[in-house]
Write a sequence for this structure.
């Protein structure tokens, strides 16, 4: 195994503290994987790009004036990253227009209507699943597809793709790697949240695909008391597990790790596994988590993007800012390919091409069910930082 030391910076920790689950519906957002919206995927691009030499307009919907400070800051960072993405495309015929959703579904719908009136060819964003639900019908009525930044897969499908870091895909990556290291029997300890539900779905999908064997699972109410109450139940339900997937982060992760150890899941014998929410400095503070594995973007690529962003704007970006950059790259690369082939750039077929697209952290692919796949590395928790023990793949394989 290669071993590359990487210690998370404060900007990264702040980004993960906001949480991938925050890109769902906020407090709500549960739903079946790949559930279809009432809209249909667009197979025809709008008139503005039928003549491929004509300008192309990308409409970016972000919550720049949200009442939630973290969401507003992320909205600004998404816009900055998107501008950097347009600059990197080096195509004067691609124009980016930015619309403020204020973090409100009704405002997002109005912003989408303005974008349509302004001649948008594709919508990038919004950030939250609740806003995506209101934007999708407006976009569909104008023949536009939507690349949402949400992780809420209940809004995926039809003319919507969710491009956030999906717990389901992270679970598939870590469980596949664990199986390759002979950790097959897995218990899942997860929060009663949309994020936790998605993580469990990912584990069960991996079980059905033969990538792991889920021997027990227990949900907990977030918070110390909820974790304490559920840990004893989990110890019985997951008896015999050779690995446990703890699908949370922050202080809840530290509490869960401590209780797992207390209930005789010895981390020397039982491998602790996690998801992307482990990728913060707080994870390093819990001794029982040392030696645990979790998936994350390639550290070198993440650092390079952060450094370029800081050089341009004067500060390090939150991790999720990369979603704005990648959405622009997907759109721009789709246009470039269409100009070479003469095909429509933003059709469902073009957006879900098996080869995928080049993102800031590596390859990213949109799937026919409205989700996405990303290349992720596997990191190990060490005393002073994280070690890359399995690099992110350079490609995403044969595809679907």
């Amino acid at each position: 195994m290669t071993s590359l030391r990487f210690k998370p910076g404060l900007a990264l920790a702040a980004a993960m503290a906001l949480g991938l689950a925050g890109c769902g519906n906020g407090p709500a957002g549960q739903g079946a994987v790949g559930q279809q919206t009432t809209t249909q995927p667009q197979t025809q691009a709008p008139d503005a790009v039928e003549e491929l030499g004509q300008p192309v307009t990308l409409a970016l919907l972000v919550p720049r004036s949200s009442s939630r400070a973290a969401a507003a800051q992320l909205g600004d960072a998404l816009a900055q990253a998107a501008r950097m993405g347009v600059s990197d495309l080096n195509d004067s015929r691609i124009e980016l227009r930015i619309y403020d959703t204020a973090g409100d579904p009704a405002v997002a719908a109005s912003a989408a209507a303005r974008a349509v009136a302004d001649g948008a060819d594709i919508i990038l964003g919004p950030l939250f699943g609740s806003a995506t639900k209101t934007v999708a019908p407006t976009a569909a009525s104008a023949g536009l597809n939507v690349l949402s930044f949400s992780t809420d897969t209940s809004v995926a499908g039809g003319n919507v793709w969710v491009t956030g870091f999906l717990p389901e895909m992270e679970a598939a990556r870590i469980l596949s790697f664990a199986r390759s290291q002979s950790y097959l029997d897995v218990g899942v300890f997860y929060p009663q949240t949309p994020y936790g539900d998605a993580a469990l779905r990912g584990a069960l999908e991996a079980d059905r695909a033969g990538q792991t064997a889920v021997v027990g699972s227990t949900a907990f109410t977030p918070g110390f008391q909820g974790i304490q109450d559920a840990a004893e139940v989990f110890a019985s339900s997951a008896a015999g597990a050779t690995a446990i997937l703890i699908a949370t982060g922050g202080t809840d992760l530290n509490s869960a790790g401590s209780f797992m150890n207390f209930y005789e899941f010895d981390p020397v014998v039982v491998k602790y596994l996690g998801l992307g929410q482990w990728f913060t400095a707080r994870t390093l503070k819990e001794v029982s988590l040392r030696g645990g594995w979790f998936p994350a973007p390639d550290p070198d690529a993440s650092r390079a993007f952060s450094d370029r962003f800081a050089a341009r704007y004067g500060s390090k970006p939150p991790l999720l800012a990369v979603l704005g950059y990648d959405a622009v790259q997907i759109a721009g690369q789709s246009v470039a390919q269409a100009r070479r082939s003469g095909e429509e750039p933003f059709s469902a077929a073009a957006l879900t091409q098996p080869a995928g697209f080049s993102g800031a952290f590596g390859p990213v692919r949109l799937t026919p069910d409205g989700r996405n796949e990303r290349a992720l590395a596997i990191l190990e928790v060490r005393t002073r930082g994280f070690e890359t023990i399995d690099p992110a793949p350079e490609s995403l394989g044969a595809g679907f």
Observations:
- The first helix runs from residue 10 to 18.
- Residues 331 and 347 are 11 Å apart (CA to CA).
- The two ends are 28 Å apart (CA to CA).
